[in-house]
């Protein structure tokens, strides 16, 4: 065999070997098994802003960890209502979740401070509080209950909507049966305004309105529109009584499995997803309001004088829930 031919054959064999290595590596990477696969509970629909935020969070974590950590987002309360999800988080049955502060405050009463009625002047005011030292301090409070607070999500501002009777002034609320979240504070707020509070799970609100078990409910524009509550409660009164932020959480049992490096990655991804969720929330809020009105909802805006009467009526709630935290309340009010 000539020397030239030997070199050609050697070159072909080397190339074939290299190709085999490349194919093996590609196949090996495609078959890589994640080190962790975690669950994420979300009670809203798949295209709801908070669910989109959760999906973005999962994508960021998978990308930053090069596939070592995967998070499976399960929307539409597949893993249970928020109250049940919190219990599962505490013992590690669920790894991550996004929950309303109203539910979390049932476990940690100090959290009530951040959802007091008519506390914030507007959205800008609330984010100034939550993105600062006060917000960080409340995230850390979750540690007390085997939870790890990661970031704050937007849930807009809540208002009343009713089936048969419009709410145009404080007198209209007297004796009305209003659905509220499963939250003592929210129930007391509604009753301070003169209505009767009914604590009903979110998924059952439509049927409760349809069957006349309640006269109305309270929530934000996206929830009102996504759940089609405008079909059974067409009068939407914009009183904007509460801005209830929501928290992204990890189970402490899950958190302790992770290295400090992975914990830092997850915190950064959670905060990035929160900013993303806030942007799409703002867009969705405008879109949902427009859609609901186009489909028959009637928007009622209270006068400034009437809003002042609503604010005055709920002052007793501050004394009941925040007697030991009035310094924090004052600090928040002064940040506007």
> What would you report as the Rg, rounded to the nearest angstrom?
25 Å
Rounded mean pLDDT is: 90
Stretches where pLDDT is under 50 for at least 5 consecutive residues are 1-28
Number of helices: 15
Helix/strand layout:
Layout: H1 3-30, E1 36-41, H2 49-64, E2 69-74, H3 82-91, E3 96-100, H4 101-107, H5 123-130, H6 133-141, E4 147-153, E5 158-162, H7 170-173, E6 177-180, H8 184-192, E7 196-199, H9 205-210, E8 216-219, H10 221-226, E9 235-242, E10 246-251, H11 252-255, H12 260-294, E11 298-301, H13 304-313, H14 315-322, H15 326-333
Parallel strand pairs: 1-2, 1-3, 6-7, 6-8, 9-11
Antiparallel strand pairs: 3-10, 4-10, 5-8, 5-9
Q: What would your notes on this structure say?
A:
The chain has helices spanning 3-30, 49-64, 82-91, 101-107, 123-130, 133-141, 170-173, 184-192, 205-210, 221-226, 252-255, 260-294, 304-313, 315-322, 326-333; strands at 36-41, 69-74, 96-100, 147-153, 158-162, 177-180, 196-199, 216-219, 235-242, 246-251, 298-301. The protein has 336 residues and is of the alpha/beta class. A 6-stranded mixed sheet has the order 7-6-8-5-9-11. Strands 2-1-3-10-4 form a 5-stranded mixed sheet. Helix 8 links the parallel strand 6 and strand 7. The longest helix has 35 residues, at 260-294. Mean pLDDT is 90; it is low at 1-28.
């Amino acid at each position: 065999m000539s020397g030239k031919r030997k070199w050609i054959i050697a070159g072909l064999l080397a190339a074939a070997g290299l190709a085999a290595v490349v194919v093996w590596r590609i196949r090996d990477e495609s078959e890589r098994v994640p080190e962790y696969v975690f669950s994420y509970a979300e009670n809203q629909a798949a295209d709801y802003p908070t669910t989109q935020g959760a999906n973005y969070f999962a994508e960021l974590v998978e990308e930053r960890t090069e596939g070592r950590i995967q998070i499976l987002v399960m929307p539409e309360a597949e893993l249970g209502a928020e109250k049940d999800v919190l219990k599962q988080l505490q013992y590690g049955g669920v790894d991550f979740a996004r929950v309303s502060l109203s539910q979390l405050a049932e476990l940690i009463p100090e959290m009530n401070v951040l959802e007091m009625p008519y506390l914030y002047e507007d959205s800008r005011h609330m984010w100034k509080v939550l993105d600062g030292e006060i917000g960080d301090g409340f995230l850390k409070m979750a540690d007390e209950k085997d939870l790890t607070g990661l970031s704050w999500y937007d849930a807009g501002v809540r208002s009343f909507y009713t089936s048969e009777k419009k709410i145009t002034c404080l007198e209209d609320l007297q004796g009305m049966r209003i659905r509220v979240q499963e939250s003592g504070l929210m129930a007391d707020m509604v009753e301070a305004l003169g209505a009767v509070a009914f604590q009903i799970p979110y998924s059952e609100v439509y049927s409760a309105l349809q069957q006349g078990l309640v006269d109305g409910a309270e929530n934000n524009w996206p929830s009102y529109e996504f759940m089609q509550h405008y079909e059974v409660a067409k009068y939407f009164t914009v009183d904007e009584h509460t801005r209830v932020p929501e928290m992204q959480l990890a189970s402490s049992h899950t958190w302790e499995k992770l290295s400090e490096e992975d914990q830092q990655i997850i915190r950064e991804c959670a905060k990035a997803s929160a900013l993303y969720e806030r942007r799409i929330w703002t867009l969705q809020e405008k879109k949902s309001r427009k859609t609901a009105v186009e489909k028959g909802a009637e928007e009622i805006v209270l006068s400034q004088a009437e809003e002042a009467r609503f604010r005055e009526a709920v002052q007793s709630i501050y004394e009941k829930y925040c007697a030991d935290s009035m310094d924090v309340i004052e600090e928040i009010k002064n940040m506007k």
